[in-house]
Sequence to fold (437 residues):
Amino acid sequence: MISIEEWSVAAPSKKVERFLEREAFPAVAEAAASAVLADIRKRGDKAVAAAVAKYEGNRNLKPSGFRIPDAELAKAAESVPAPLRRAVRDAYSRVLRFAKAGLRKDWKISTPGGGEEGEFFTPMERVGVYVPGGTAPLASTSVMTVTLARAAGVRDIVVCTPGGKTGEVNPVLLYALSVAGATSVYRVGGIQAIGMMAFGTASCPKVLKIAGPGNAFVTAAKRQVYGHVAIDQVAGPSEIAVLSDGSADPAWVAADLLSQAEHGSGLEKSLFVTQSRGFAEKVKAEILRQTRTLSRRALVERVIRAGGILLAVAPDIGEGMELVNRFAPEHFEIMCRNAKRLLGKVRSAGAVFVGPWTPESAGDFVAGPSHVLPTGGAAKMFSGLTADDFRCRHSFVSYTEKDLRGTADTIAAFAKVEGLDGHGRAAAIRFDRSVAD
Fold:
């Protein structure tokens, strides 16, 4: 079930190469998303209710009940035990601090003629956030998404999360949404939630951007609504890679690999890379031992049966790093001696966790950076969610007469070669009105 494979740049293992391949948009998810989204564009809330009945099992939910009333949110908060409230506020404060520190600042430079140009940033007016809840109530995702939009200054933050057969949403998740700054919460999940936010319905006005992770169906829906709204990235089934030179405790390595395998879709991927086969054998033994102790053992074993946990032995740590870069994992742990020195070798990873005392779960729940990260190999071209993803960047130019005079010949040259004489005139007329004759 869990194999240990030899891999090198010169002689790559076929099994490892197959493991690296992930289908970001399965055909079944694409087809389902297309059908549901088309129905929502045509019938609005009626189509959303039909999809909730079909996919979430709640046949009694009407459009009037999609949005969770403020009184229900307040009641949920009252039912959350004090230790959990403290945990939520702790995570929120750390994520907010990190988000604000990472915001890009307005800037400007002087132009040669005494003018100025630069960039400034403004928050989006209304954004949508998807918080998964099908296999587990991801209260942490509430903090890792909504907090960033709040840090960016977004005025209207809409959240959709599954209500399941009963329409009830986990109270800790609801409390986390309230703390993070959600302005409206809907008990709608899956493709139907993405369509409702992207196209707008009577119960939920259209948003400008949708962010947040989800299963293959949610991910496919986000891709298909791109253009109607902006989206953050491809964030599907969870992944982790761990690189270790044998200096780490094998029990720690195994625990970290299993932390992502327990999510529940069956499509999760956990890759371990080392230069020592003996160490790989120890990690494998720990994975098998610890799996038997997990409450979500059945879900983990499903991933194992699907070949979702793989151990690879490379000639050295350098080639091991190359394998991880080719995998482009959502989460990447470096559990080596002098781990920080290897940061410069990372090319493709959503988030990097450095050293034996930084488990991926710290990033999932509390550290600061958002845990909404690219998956399926998308870390080669996308980055994790930040507060800036909820802002618009604007450039500005303020020329003086001297600036325009200094660039007039260049403007005229481009206007001529492109056959756009109106462009050339727009600059030239400011110095010679006769060009309009």
The radius of gyration is 25 Å. The first strand starts at residue 4 and ends at 6.
